Amino acid sequence: MKRLFTFGCSFTQWNWPTWADILGRNYDQFFNWGISGTGNRAMAQRISECVLKNTLTENDTVVVQWTDYHRYDQHISGLFPETSWRLGGSIFIKDKEIQYIKDTWKEDSYIYDSLTLINYAESLLRSTPAKILFISRTDMAVDLEKFPGLDFLTTVLESDLWVGEPIQEFVDGLGYNGKPMSVRDAAMFGVPITRPVVDLHPLPSHYLAWLKQTFPDQEFDEEFVAHADSVLETVKTYDDFDRSYQEKMLWQIKGEKYVRGY
To answer: Of the candidates 154, 121, 117, 157, which has an alpha carbon nearest to the alpha carbon of residue 136?
Structure first.
């Protein structure tokens, strides 16, 4: 039985199917450990948890989608129903983080943390008989070049586990400018405020194109992807991502299937 284990941020688990969901359809069992907003620290620790909980075999594949290092992860048990990780994506888009970042932000330290944790995760995963692949959301080498003192970390990015072009760069090359959406903010004077936003996460068809380029020897469920794209065309607000949406998409994004990890 072939099993796929995936790890990553919102480019791995989001409100619509990602590369992981599409690739997972090629396996007998698919376990998506990705969580929207995850940083590299949380990914590395969740990889350790997964290895401890599962006996990985030569029939298993593990794909880790590492992300940018501008993230701060903290584990607080029972924090949310679906995860105990305090996440949230980039620290620069959260007002609550501003003072903390002013007091503690050191770019080279965040780079150091991310790449040493990736190296640790690689060593752990190589100790198993599973097939291991690393992919990335962004090009981390560009930021590493700013700090000559961190040259020793380039070996992490030169590992033979890395495959494919960074997903963000690939999608940018397609000329994608995001999906117009609307979000409902907290109510003012009892009236909910709805404002327009642009969701920059790639669409299922973008992930499919990236998968085809990265894994040219594999075939993918293009009918599923086309259906997902067509359903997404009808979605205009984040309030639309409810159970009926999941049923139309023929895909489960919430519930027990995606609650993984302590």
So the answer is: 157
Q: What is the pLDDT of residues 92-127, one digit of tens each?
A: 666 666 676 667 778 899 999 999 999 999 999 999
**CATH (domain of 215):** 3.40.50
Please, what's the b/e burial string for 57-92 (b: 16 or more CB within 10 A of its CB; e: otherwise)?
eeebbbbbbbbbbbbbbebeeeeeeebebebbbbbe
With beta carbons less than 8 A apart as the criterion, state whether 194 and 184 touch.
yes
* Mutual angle of helices 40-53 and 107-126, in 10-degree steps: 20
Contacts of 78 (CB under 8 A, 6+ apart): 84
What is the domain range of residue 198? 3-258
**What is the C-alpha to C-alpha distance for residues 21 and 13, in angstroms, rounded to an integer?**
8
CB 139 within 8 A of CB 167: no
| Encoded tokens for 120 | 């640790």
Task: Tell me the β-bridge partners of 7.
Answer: 64
Q: Does the model's pTM come out above 0.85?
A: yes
Distance CA 27, CA 4 (A): 6
Between 65 and 193, the more confident residue is 65
Q: Could you give the number of structural domains in the chain?
A: 1
DSSP 230: H
Q: Is 99 left (phi over 0), alpha (psi -120 to 50) or beta?
A: alpha
Report whether pLDDT(256) > 50. no
